[in-house]
Amino acid sequence: ALMITDECINCDVCxxxxxxxxxxxxxxxxxxxPDKCTECVGHHDEPQCVQVCPVSCIPRDPSRPxxxxxxxxxxxxxxxxx
Length: 82
Ligand code: SF4
Ligand code: SF4
Description:
With 82 residues, the chain is of the alpha+beta class. Helix content is 23%, strand content 7%. The protein has helices at 48-52, 68-81; strands at residues 23-25, 30-32. Strands 1-2 form a two-stranded antiparallel sheet. Strand 1 (23-25) and strand 2 form a beta hairpin. It is globular, with a radius of gyration of 12 Å. The mean pLDDT is 97. Residues 2, 17-18, 20, 22-23, 32, 37-40, 47-49 line the site of one iron/sulfur cluster (SF4). Pfam families: Fer4_7. Keywords: 4Fe-4S, Electron transport, Iron, Iron-sulfur, Metal-binding, Transport. Residues 1-28, 30-63 form the 4Fe-4S ferredoxin-type domain.
């Protein structure tokens, strides 16, 4: 999963771009639900939030390292949940 750092300026452009609805406004800045973030695997070649973020504050979450196969499995689980 990706994460949003405290460099976020709350511009709101990433939230509507997420195909998994993983981005939400937290107490102070936007946040990513790691259980919903597939790093856009299954939907797009590149993480859409990273593409649009004007301040480049969306790195991989070092506490949630995932392989492409794990991310794709999460994508399939999220499809089933719909
Ligand atoms: Fe959503 Fe993709 Fe960004 Fe993850 S990488 S938060 S799935 S837009
Ligand atoms: Fe924050 Fe970047 Fe999202 Fe804007 S695009 S709300 S700066 S994470």
